[in-house]
């Protein structure tokens, strides 16, 4: 839209392709090609097969996919509730209070995720709250890691809200709870769905903190991919990675449809 000449548009597309293909498309295409191969000794893979997907969609891999989905959905919803609540509260605070909340919620993403995993492990490995060895410590760590993104997304959307709607409702005698549920949250719905999708996607791909925390009966799919590649099953690991990408994109597509409908209301 900003480039009007035909030459400029072609140049823009050329630069985009030169940056996009090597950095993003080629690695994904390599994983996709490897998932259908039995050997890769030359420039291109050989031995096309579907047997890797038999292993990637059954047994431990299927259970790991279910574990990842449950973990990501639960952590995403918790992060959305906590982050949105904090963002709405920060909007009513002064500058110092808002800065404090910003720093508090951004702290987990300012340090390596393995540090967050270690902190959660140390904090919840003894009474009164003993979560070590359970699925809940993994969900808690994922929630801590992704809440910052929900907070920043909703906080930015809250700043852009037109206060006229709330002021008009208040002048007509609407209670604060009514204004929140019937005016603010509906106006924030597109940002809420975007934040939910982002939290879900980040949780689906989280590995570093998960490796420190997961119990044997709660193994997310990224851990399964790491284990497969670590024992030399690169092609099976590629197939499992494709399943992880497909599941994530499918959920994100559903969230995008919800967001699109919310935007047109």
From TrEMBL:
<feature type="domain" description="ABC transmembrane type-1">
    <location>
        <begin position="65"/>
        <end position="253"/>
    </location>
</feature>
<keyword id="KW-0472">Membrane</keyword>
<dbReference type="InterPro" id="IPR000515">
    <property type="entry name" value="MetI-like"/>
</dbReference>
<comment type="similarity">
    <text>Belongs to the binding-protein-dependent transport system permease family.</text>
</comment>
<dbReference type="Pfam" id="PF00528">
    <property type="entry name" value="BPD_transp_1"/>
</dbReference>
<feature type="transmembrane region" description="Helical">
    <location>
        <begin position="69"/>
        <end position="91"/>
    </location>
</feature>
<feature type="transmembrane region" description="Helical">
    <location>
        <begin position="103"/>
        <end position="124"/>
    </location>
</feature>
<feature type="transmembrane region" description="Helical">
    <location>
        <begin position="12"/>
        <end position="36"/>
    </location>
</feature>
<keyword id="KW-0813">Transport</keyword>
<keyword id="KW-0812">Transmembrane</keyword>
<protein>
    <submittedName>
        <fullName>ABC transporter permease subunit</fullName>
    </submittedName>
</protein>
<feature type="transmembrane region" description="Helical">
    <location>
        <begin position="136"/>
        <end position="154"/>
    </location>
</feature>
<keyword id="KW-1003">Cell membrane</keyword>
<feature type="transmembrane region" description="Helical">
    <location>
        <begin position="234"/>
        <end position="255"/>
    </location>
</feature>
<keyword id="KW-1133">Transmembrane helix</keyword>
<keyword id="KW-0997">Cell inner membrane</keyword>
<feature type="transmembrane region" description="Helical">
    <location>
        <begin position="187"/>
        <end position="214"/>
    </location>
</feature>
<dbReference type="InterPro" id="IPR035906">
    <property type="entry name" value="MetI-like_sf"/>
</dbReference>
């Amino acid at each position: 839209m900003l480039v009007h000449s035909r030459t400029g548009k072609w140049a823009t597309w050329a630069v985009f392709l030169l940056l996009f293909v090597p950095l993003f498309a080629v690695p994904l295409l390599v994983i996709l090609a490897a998932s259908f191969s039995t050997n890769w000794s030359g420039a291109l893979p050989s031995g096309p097969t579907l047997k890797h997907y038999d292993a990637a969609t059954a047994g431990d891999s299927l259970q790991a996919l279910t574990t990842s989905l449950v973990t990501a959905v639960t952590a995403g919803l918790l992060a959305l509730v906590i982050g949105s609540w904090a963002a709405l509260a920060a909007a009513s605070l002064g500058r110092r209070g808002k800065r404090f909340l910003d720093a508090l919620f951004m702290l987990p993403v300012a340090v390596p995720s393995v540090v967050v995993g270690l902190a959660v492990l140390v904090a919840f490995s003894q009474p009164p709250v003993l979560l070590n060895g359970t699925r809940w410590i993994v969900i808690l760590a994922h929630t801590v890691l992704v809440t910052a993104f929900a907070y920043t997304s909703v906080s930015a959307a809250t700043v852009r809200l037109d206060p006229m709607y709330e002021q008009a409702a208040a002048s007509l005698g609407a209670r604060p709870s009514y204004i929140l549920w019937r005016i603010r949250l509906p106006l924030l719905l597109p940002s809420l769905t975007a934040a939910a999708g982002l939290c879900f996607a980040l949780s689906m791909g989280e590995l570093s903190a998960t490796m420190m925390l997961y119990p044997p009966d709660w193994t997310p799919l990224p851990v399964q991919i790491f284990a497969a590649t670590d024992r030399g099953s690169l092609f099976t690991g590629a197939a499992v990675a494709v399943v992880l990408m497909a599941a994530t994109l499918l959920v994100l597509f559903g969230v995008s449809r919800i967001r699109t409908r919310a935007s047109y209301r």
